[in-house]
Amino acid sequence: MKDEEWYMLYRDEPIQYGDWTLVFRAQSGIDVSFYTLWETIGYHDDLPLSSEFPIGCYRMDNMERCSRHFRGSVLDDWTNINQVKVSLFSNGSEVVYMIFNGSSSTRDTWYQQTLILESSWTLLRNDSNVVDFNFQGFLWSGNNRRMVICGQYSGCGGDSTYYMALDSTYDACLDTWSLAIPNFPVFLYSPWNRLVTLSSQPTGRSLRSTITQVQRIINLKLG
């Protein structure tokens, strides 16, 4: 049954969770590129939020099904951003999060190791073993790794990561990692407070979604 009270509350305004505004919700395993939608300027699912848009695709829990990504209008109006939060959810629970300093950032520049303010990976901000930290990702040889936080690339066998999103079913290293991806995107994360070696140590999978939210500085006009 739909939670109609919750649904109507957010129908005609940006979706809020406390102090956070929902910017993007990427759903795993639906065979649609989340990165392509992120970059699709002019498309958004809110303001207004259509009554046809699935409730499960803008909720954090897993009470409703979802088969699409959510793109908010904030991505095309990236102004007065204070902080940016990335959360990974599995089975309705947040398993990993990162909060970045979003001031003076753009839609494409906030995702940096030096801008981390807080994270469930407490060692991440100062981990000198991280050599590739970028949103656009690692696209060598047909790979579609996005939002990568990785150590030195070492011919698949030595590749390590805190987090990466695989935005297609192909990756040159899947056999070495003993990883099958029947559907994409897949969000892989380290379950420990360090880089995890993909070929020899298990990674967690965010089975539901990756959520991006922002806090905005509200300008008040007095008098």
Fold and architecture overview:
With 223 residues, the chain is mainly beta. The chain has one domain. The protein has helices spanning 4-9, 34-38, 174-177; strands at residues 16-17, 20-27, 70-71, 81-90, 93-101, 116-119, 132-134, 145-150, 160-166, 186-189, 196-197, 204-205, 209-216. Strands 1, 2, 3, 4, 5, 6 and 13 form a seven-stranded antiparallel β-sheet that branches. Strands 7, 8, 9, 10, 11 and 12 form a six-stranded antiparallel β-sheet that branches. The longest helix has 6 residues, at 4-9. The protein is globular and about 50 Å long.
DSSP strand tally: 13
Q: Summarize model confidence as the mean pLDDT.
A: 86
Please count the helical segments.
3
User: pLDDT under 50 segments (min length 5)?
Assistant: 1-10, 218-223
The Cα radius of gyration reads: 18 Å
Overall outline:
globular
Distance between the termini: 47 Å
Task: Quote the beta fraction.
Answer: 25-35%
Order of helices and strands: HEEHEEEEEEEHEEEE
- Biggest beta sheet summary: 7 strands, antiparallel
Percent helix: under 10%
Number of domains: 1
Structural class determined from secondary elements:
mainly beta
What's the gist of this structure?
This protein is mostly beta strands and 223 residues long. It contains three helices and 13 strands, in the order H-E-E-H-E-E-E-E-E-E-E-H-E-E-E-E.
Overview features:
223 residues, mainly beta, seven-stranded antiparallel sheet, six-stranded antiparallel sheet, 3 helices, disordered N terminus, disordered C terminus
